[in-house]
């Protein structure tokens, strides 16, 4: 080129393992120069882990989870999904939870009913995978 040699490193398909510091070193009879570039691969978050039912009542349940790998982009929210496991209708319910939370109490459940619950994290890149589902049965009333 007019002002010297141009060098390029082209990564055609990046993965998490490609995160890191990349260094280009040029040497000639006049000396040495180097440039470093930090590559951070942005991706959707991993699935939250260790989803557990902490306490169950007749019309509510308390759950906790461990935050996942963020995908190198801050988690913006969690989406909790739950539904009845038997008897129609099997309507899906969703609750949006703040990114700072790792627990939730879900209310307005029916007594003596089996449910399944799972959640996913979301960041500016997109929605991650769903956590492994957890089953529970609400308590009976009276």
Can you tell me about this structure?
The protein is mostly beta strands and 142 residues long. It has a domain at 49-137: Immunoglobulins (Immunoglobulin-like). The protein is 0% helix and 46% strand. The chain contains no helices and nine strands. It has a four-stranded antiparallel β-sheet with strand order 6-5-8-9, with no helix packed on it. A three-stranded antiparallel β-sheet has the order 3-4-7, with no helix packed on it. Strand 1 (20-28) and strand 2 (31-39) form a beta hairpin. The chain is rod-shaped and about 90 Å long.
List the main descriptive attributes of the protein structure presented here:
0% helix; single chain; four-stranded antiparallel sheet; Immunoglobulin-like; three-stranded antiparallel sheet; 142 residues; 9 strands; mainly beta
Largest sheet: 4 strands, antiparallel
Radius of gyration: 24 Å
CATH class identity of the domain at 49-137: Mainly Beta
CATH overall fold name of the domain at 49-137: Immunoglobulin-like
* Form type: rod-shaped
pLDDT < 50 runs, ≥5 residues: none
Q: SSE order, as H and E?
A: EEEEEEEEE
Number of E strands: 9
Question: Which percent range fits the helix content?
Answer: under 10%
């Amino acid at each position: 080129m007019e002002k010297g040699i141009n060098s390029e490193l082209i990564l055609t398909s990046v993965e998490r393992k490609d995160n890191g510091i990349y260094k280009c070193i040029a040497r000639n009879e006049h000396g040495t120069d180097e440039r470093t570039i930090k590559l951070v691969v942005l991706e959707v978050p991993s699935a939250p882990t260790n989803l557990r039912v902490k306490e169950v009542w007749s019309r509510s349940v308390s759950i906790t989870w461990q935050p996942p790998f963020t995908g190198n982009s801050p988690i913006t929210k969690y989406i909790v999904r739950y539904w009845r496991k038997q008897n129609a209708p099997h309507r899906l319910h969703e609750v949006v939870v703040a990114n700072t939370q790792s627990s939730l109490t879900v209310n307005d459940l029916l007594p003596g009913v089996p449910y399944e619950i799972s959640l996913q994290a979301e960041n500016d890149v997109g929605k991650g995978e769903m956590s492994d589902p957890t089953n529970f049965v609400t308590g009976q009333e009276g």
